[in-house]
């Protein structure tokens, strides 16, 4: 029989353990005590009893009483957050937590048509999102570092960097949907891509992206000209047929859509247009990488909340009264709207993306799933690799561990749990005789006149 050890957990944020224990139903049960522990002062009662294998995760130099165990992910978080060394892991890889999410109501054509309508409310919400991101001003380095979610931002940058390093290859042609202010340009430059097209609905963001690409902005990481030519387009990539807009640029090797695909899920028409665009632009064998809210986690938290709002000190999510019963019809997977607020980042309507529906829809557009992982799972998986541990250290997402303020807080870590990453591959084999893209379409310096503006009538 496996030897068992007990440790009494002491930590200012011990409530995180209770949150972790709610996942007992998952195949990650490393503790053996059955009673739900309660927080009394700075301790858990009864003591958290875990298997010897779980305690092996704690280095000999770290006392168990100093550790915060996030049981649902089998990781000693305080050690993980305060060390740049790879962790010893003894748990089995698990499938994505983003499976089997609930659904919502559809927006059917009142005339009885089979298609979903792009009604005025959808356009209003899309414009509201665009205005929100356009209005966000560029921050100085000092303002950025003072952000209450600075380590969450750095963690998200690490996740995007890992995705790009895993799938981008030298000379690749890249199309970046919802590129924003160009925050990933340096990541693509480090991947030595050959051509870049950035598309965003927000005019202010695309202009800031132009400034960043040209090197006119005061960005601390900006040291030299980018090595790839680029084009910038302002328009709604969930409404416009991009194969017409980029007929002379396609096919692309890789498409990226970071923290934005859920804005297409307000109607079936927009969701389909998003996937149709990606499929039409990618070559056979091309890769689609992205990050978006994890529907399973959000609905789980909604159902655990007393009302229709949940969150912590850095974020909150609020559903409307129409979802007061917290039940969602499987026949209606589009239009599940909620309001999301993230300190110093987001404050606008968003939409649930049920992952099983997303996967099925993607298959209709010739995509196959490579992987889908919750952000927590993604971090634990790729922190096994020394090169990504070093990248995490350089980005400073976990701080240096010398002071409490220097590392990812428990509330930021919980906010990260709301998101997931995915990778899709377009079916087929690439035609080696076909050029990836006509890179002569791009420019090494983009003027305001070079920005292409497209409307829904394009």
Key features of this structure:
15 helices, 458 residues, globular, eight-stranded mixed sheet, alpha/beta, 18 strands, four-stranded antiparallel sheet
Architecture overview:
It comes from Psophocarpus tetragonolobus. By secondary structure, the protein is α/β, with parallel strands linked by helices. It is built from 15 helices and 18 strands. Strand 5 and strand 6 form a beta hairpin. Helix 6 packs antiparallel against helix 14. Residues 1-37, 39-44, 47-119 and 400-405 have low confidence and may be disordered.
Question: Helix and strand layout, with pairings?
Answer:
Layout (H helix, E strand, L loop, with lengths): L3 E4 L7 H7 L16 E3 L2 E3 L2 E4 H4 L13 E2 L4 E2 H5 L38 H16 L5 H5 L4 H18 L5 E5 L7 H6 L4 E6 L2 H12 L15 E5 L7 H4 L6 E7 L9 H14 E12 L1 H10 L4 E3 L3 E5 L17 E6 L3 E6 L3 H10 L2 E8 H8 L3 H10 L14 H7 L2 E8 L25 E2 L5
Parallel strand pairs: 7-8, 7-10, 8-9, 9-18, 10-11
Antiparallel strand pairs: 1-4, 2-3, 5-6, 11-17, 12-13, 13-14, 14-15, 16-17
Helix/sheet category: alpha/beta
Helix content: 25-40%
How far from one another are the termini?
A: 68 Å
Radius of gyration: 23 Å
In this structure, how is the largest beta sheet organized?
8 strands, mixed
Low-confidence spans? 1-37, 39-44, 47-119, 400-405
EC number: 2.1.1.56
GO molecular function: mRNA 5'-cap (guanine-N7-)-methyltransferase activity; RNA binding
Domain MRNA cap 0 methyltransferase: 147-427
Main location: nucleus
């Amino acid at each position: 029989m496996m030897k068992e050890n007990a440790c009494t957990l002491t930590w200012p944020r011990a409530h995180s353990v209770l949150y972790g224990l709610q996942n007992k139903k998952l195949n990650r049960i490393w503790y053996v005590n059955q009673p739900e522990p309660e927080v009394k002062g700075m301790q858990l009662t009864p003591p958290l009893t875990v298997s010897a294998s779980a305690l092996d995760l704690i280095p000999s130099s770290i006392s168990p009483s100093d550790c915060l165990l996030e049981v649902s992910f089998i990781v000693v978080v305080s050690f993980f957050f305060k060390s740049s060394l790879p962790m010893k892991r003894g748990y089995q890889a698990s499938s994505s937590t983003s499976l089997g999410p609930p659904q919502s109501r559809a927006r059917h054509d009142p005339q009885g048509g089979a298609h979903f309508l792009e009604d005025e409310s959808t356009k209003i919400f899309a414009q509201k999102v665009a205005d929100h991101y356009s209005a966000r001003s560029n921050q100085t380095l000092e303002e950025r570092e003072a952000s209450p979610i600075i380590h969450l931002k750095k963690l998200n940058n690490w996740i995007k960097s890992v995705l790009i390093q895993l799938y981008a290859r030298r000379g690749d042609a890249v199309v970046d949907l919802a590129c924003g202010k160009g925050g990933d340009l340096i990541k693509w430059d480090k991947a030595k891509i050959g051509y870049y097209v950035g598309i965003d609905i927000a005019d202010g963001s695309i202009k800031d992206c132009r400034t960043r690409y040209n090197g006119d902005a005061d960005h601390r990481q900006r040291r030299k000209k980018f090595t790839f030519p680029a084009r910038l387009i302002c328009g709604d990539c969930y409404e416009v047929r991009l194969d017409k807009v980029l007929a002379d640029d396609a096919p692309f090797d890789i498409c990226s859509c970071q923290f934005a695909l859920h804005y297409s899920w307000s109607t079936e028409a927009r969701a389909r247009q998003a996937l149709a665009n990606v499929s039409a632009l990618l070559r056979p064998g091309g890769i689609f990488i992205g990050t978006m809210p994890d529907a399973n986690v959000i609905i789980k938290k909604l159902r655990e909340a007393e009302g229709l709002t949940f969150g912590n000190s850095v974020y909150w999510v609020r559903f409307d009264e129409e979802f007061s019963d917290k039940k969602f019809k499987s026949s209606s997977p589009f239009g599940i709207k909620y309001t999301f607020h993230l300190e110093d980042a987001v404050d606008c309507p968003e939409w649930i993306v049920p992952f099983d529906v997303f996967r099925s829809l993607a298959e209709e557009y010739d995509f196959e799933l490579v992987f889908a992982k919750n952000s927590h799972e993604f971090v634990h998986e790729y922190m096994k690799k020394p090169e990504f541990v070093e990248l995490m250290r350089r980005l400073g997402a976990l701080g240096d561990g010398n002071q409490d303020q220097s590392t990812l807080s428990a509330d930021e870590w919980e906010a990260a749990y709301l998101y997931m990453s995915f990778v899709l591959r377009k079916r087929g084999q690439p035609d080696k005789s076909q050029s990836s893209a006509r890179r002569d379409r791009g420019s090494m310096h983009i003027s305001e006149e070079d920005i292409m503006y497209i409307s829904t009538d394009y």
